[in-house]
Specification:
With 503 residues, this protein is of the alpha/beta class. Helix content is 30%, strand content 18%. The chain has a seven-stranded parallel beta sheet, with helices on both faces. Strands 1-2-3-6 form a four-stranded antiparallel beta sheet, with no helix packed on it. The protein has a four-stranded parallel beta sheet with strand order 11-10-12-13, sandwiched between helices.
């Protein structure tokens, strides 16, 4: 069974099963036959591990043995725990610039502020949940309207609805976060125009969102309230007239060549498994490095899911300020979870565990691989506008729809999402490329997965797969539709981060 397991680092005291293995199997690098069956993607002790001993994967600690584990023993939740761990952050110690690559181009929509979009939607953005249904009614009416549906160069009309905007404080961190999120969506380069619809009496007031200046630099922005228009039907009727005017402007945009340095790509993972940190995540990390070497921007997020691996990022920080800002976000999360009765080791999820992941340390080490090796150029709050090119970090929860919402609000015009269990989702206005971590799931869910990274186990190099991912990024940015777009995803995944009490 020479190809049945893989050792990821010379220091590791475990191997990973690449197939379902039976009791009694003898494996290379494992000192004794398996005392019991081990599912694929799960961990096997390569030698006896004493209770309290550190367990290593990727050459890094993923926890401590909670009992004696025999050679060949299955390592999982029953015998592996977080345990105490210390970290040497060594800020900037490994911040080495990557050599530049010749520039590439994609075909995108050039905006007035210099951004370049990968799609050309018109958004119906809501200030509050109370205007959500009317925004959907407006989008449905627009899709059926003979004038609007005939407009060229417009990808569609997207209702951006959510479950907050009222029943909240108007002065706290939660309010500021929602304000950044809504303004960020209004300014995303994948929108050719925005219609903002409020109810009228909510905490997140439309005049406050509009502010003193234009919410969009191209001026293709309108707003209204349902109460001000005189009710539902009157609002829909007025909105259609306004959308026809806005569509005339948006339809003038055409795809033109742009350097890939204008791309802003959100890096995501969900439904991870034991293969994620071996196949899709490092392959996406290589693609991230390639894009950064051409001047592009990639965003890593999900702070609870880098916990325990943040030292791999601080060591790549371009300055002490960048490294400290990431650590400040880690401390914020430690306090946030503590005051809410949670803990940072509330992951992996049940699906992650079935896929072979045990502790948040293990999951985080694999998740950070999506960020490649480029220096960490900046750290941003949730939905804060990205102003620094290169590889950056945006703080967010680990909940995928919420994390992607923040990345799009920060400027992401493309999302690349790795999954081992088979996550299905889309994120209008930004197209989402799905990467399968294992061939079995890819074969079962081919209608949802854009690229199979499971063939890395069979010999495809991480570098070759990273190049394949980069080519897919450029093709999708130029207009090729992802499978999630073809299936119609993207209308239900706008999930702003709610911080604070719902009152």
């Amino acid at each position: 069974m020479a190809d049945a397991v893989i050792r990821l680092h010379g220091r590791d005291n475990l191997v990973i099963a690449l197939a379902d293995l039976p009791k009694g199997a003898s494996l290379p690098g494992v000192e004794a036959p398996l005392p019991g069956p081990v599912p694929r993607g799960h961990k096997i002790a390569s030698r006896a591990i004493a209770r309290g001993e550190t367990v290593l994967r990727y050459g890094q600690a993923i926890g401590q043995a909670t009992e004696d584990i025999p050679a060949g023993g299955h390592i999982h939740s029953h015998n592996l725990g977080m345990g105490p761990h210390s970290t040497d952050y060594a800020i900037g110690a490994e911040a080495r610039p990557l050599p530049p690559l010749p520039p590439r181009e994609f075909l995108g929509y050039h905006r007035a502020d210099g951004q370049v979009g990968t799609r050309n939607y018109i958004g119906i953005l809501t200030s509050v949940n109370c205007s959500g249904s009317v925004a959907r009614f407006i989008a449905e009416a627009a899709e059926k309207d003979p004038v609007l549906s005939a407009m060229p160069n417009i990808d569609g009309f997207v209702p951006i609805v959510h479950n907050t905007g009222c029943g909240m404080s108007g002065v706290n961190e939660g309010y500021a976060t929602l304000m950044r999120t809504l303004k960020g969506y209004a300014r995303n380069a994948n929108f050719g125009g925005i219609l903002l619809v409020g109810l009228g009496c909510e905490v997140m007031q439309v005049p406050d969102l509009v502010g003193q200046g234009r919410l969009r630099p191209d001026g293709n922005f309108r707003y209204m309230t349902i109460q001000g228009e005189g009710g539902t039907r009157a609002t829909i009727e007025r909105a259609l007239k306004v959308l026809r005017e806005m569509a005339e402007v948006a339809a003038q945009a055409m795809r033109r060549p742009a350097p890939v340095s204008k791309l802003i790509v959100g890096l995501q993972c969900g439904g991870s498994d034991g293969y994620s940190g071996i196949t899709a995540n490092p392959a996406l990390g290589h693609a991230s490095d390639l894009l950064v070497r051409m001047g592009g921007t990639t965003i890593l997020s999900e702070t609870p899911e880098i916990y325990g691996a943040e030292h791999l990022l601080t060591r790549r920080a371009v300055s002490p300020e960048v490294g400290e800002r990431l650590l400040e976000r880690i401390r914020w999360w430690e306090n946030y979870t503590a005051i809410n009765g949670g803990e940072m080791d509330n992951n992996p999820s049940p699906g992650n565990k079935r896929g072979g992941l045990t502790t948040i340390l293990e999951k985080s080490l694999g998740a950070v691989a999506k960020g490649g090796t480029a220096p960490l150029a900046g750290v941003y709050k949730f939905a804060e506008a990205i102003t620094t090119p290169g590889f950056v970090y945006m703080d967010s929860p680990g909940y995928d729809p919420c994390s992607v919402t923040g990345q799009i609000a920060s400027g992401a015009t493309l999302i690349v999402f790795t999954t081992g269990r088979g996550s299905v989702s889309g994120y209008k206005p930004s197209p989402c490329i799905k990467l399968a971590t294992n061939t079995e799931m890819y074969a079962r869910m081919q209608e949802d997965m854009d690229i199979n990274c499971g063939d890395i186990i069979d010999g495809t190099s991480i570098e070759a797969k990273g190049e394949e991912i980069l080519e897919k990024m450029i093709a999708v940015a130029s207009g090729e539709r992802t499978l999630s777009e073809q299936l119609g995803f993207g209308g239900a995944e706008f999930v702003p981060w709610q911080i604070g009490a719902v009152m």
